[in-house]
Design brief:
The protein is an alpha/beta fold. It folds into two domains: 9-205, 2-enoyl-CoA Hydratase, Chain A, domain 1, CATH 3.90.226; 210-279, no CATH class. Helices cover 49% and strands 15% of the residues. It has 14 helices and ten strands. It has helices at residues 32-47, 70-73, 90-99, 116-123, 140-143, 151-159, 161-170, 176-182, 191-205, 210-225, 228-243, 248-257, 264-268, 270-276, and strands at 9-14, 17-22, 53-58, 63-65, 104-109, 112-114, 126-130, 135-137, 174-175, 187-189. It has a six-stranded mixed beta sheet, with helices on both faces. Strand 1 (9-14) and strand 2 form a beta hairpin. Helix 1 packs parallel to helix 3. The two termini are 27 Å apart.
């Protein structure tokens, strides 16, 4: 897959991991050019069966992704729109498409992510942030609007109702440790640790079957939106999507024939064994 000809991104593929570096001086503002690039990136990822993990990082030493471009906001309509007539905004549509790609997506946050930039991070599957460098904010209430790139919609799903409202209504900065405590990120790390941690995680995930990664991801996302009965049916649906396209049944047969599941050393060592079994494919 060709990951070239972007205006605001640089992408490098290596053994199933695509590292996307956001590079749009002076401040990585989230405008039309970046949205076009992200939409093009998502379109390519949807067709790519070689890439299994996407890591988003920034070339800017202080900013991951800035807020949504005010040039686009100043021309918004001031007229009320009915629920029947309302359409998704470009930012919502593009970030939702990014959230649904079949690959695992990781935001490596080594700078500020405010407004739309933070909403971009929320649209990724996982987020890791560097202490002393990362800050996030949803400032929209102070501008007279609301987070409208998924920030209002995804925040409560991520952190719960009360914390979501505190974040959205306070319009203040939260640092990496506060973000970890609130649940907007997976983990806060020291700046000299984050690179190795994310790299190791991405490389580990990239060793698993692409179809299984996608099935896991889609099941988890569906479970958020459905009652438990429907969520369990979705889980069963994606199970068969995975078994039809991966070596799962071969691996189960191998484990059973070898008696591997009854070996106590294997039971103690699943974290490593799950990597070793990637070699069993036929």
């Amino acid at each position: 897959m060709n990951y070239k000809n972007f205006k605001t991104l640089n992408a490098v593929a290596d053994n199933g991991v695509l590292t996307v570096t956001i590079d749009f001086p002076p401040v990585n503002v989230q405008g039309q050019a970046m949205l076009e690039d992200l939409n093009s990136l998502a379109m390519r990822l949807e067709r790519d069966r070689e890439t299994k993990v996407v890591v988003f990082q920034s070339a800017h030493p202080e900013i991951w992704v800035c807020h949504y471009d005010t040039e686009l906001l100043k021309d918004m309509s001031s007229e009320v729109v009915s629920r029947e007539e309302v359409q998704l905004l470009d930012l919502q549509s593009v970030l939702e498409r990014i959230s649904r790609v079949p690959q695992a997506t990781i935001a490596k946050l080594e700078g500020m992510a405010r407004g739309g930039g933070h909403e971009f991070a929320l649209a990724c599957d996982m987020r890791f942030a560097a202490r002393g460098k990362y800050k996030f904010m949803q400032m929209e209430v102070g501008m007279g609007i609301l987070p409208c790139g998924g920030g209002a919609s995804r925040m409560a799903r991520q952190v719960g109702l009360g914390r979501a409202l505190e974040i959205v209504l306070s319009a203040r900065d939260f640092d990496a440790d506060q973000a970890e405590a609130y649940g907007t990120i997976n983990k806060a790390l020291d700046p000299d640790e984050i690179g190795e941690y994310v790299d190791e995680l991405a490389k580990r995930i990239a060793q698993f079957p692409a179809e299984s990664i996608n099935a896991c991801k889609q099941t988890v996302y569906e479970s958020i939106d459905k009652p438990i009965g429907d969520a369990l049916k979705a889980e069963a649906y994606w199970l068969y999507q995975a078994t039809s396209k991966t070596a799962a049944l071969t691996r189960f047969a191998w484990a059973d024939d070898q008696g591997a599941q009854f070996d106590m050393d294997n039971q103690r060592n699943w974290e490593n064994m799950v990597m070793d079994i990637q070699e069993v494919n036929d």
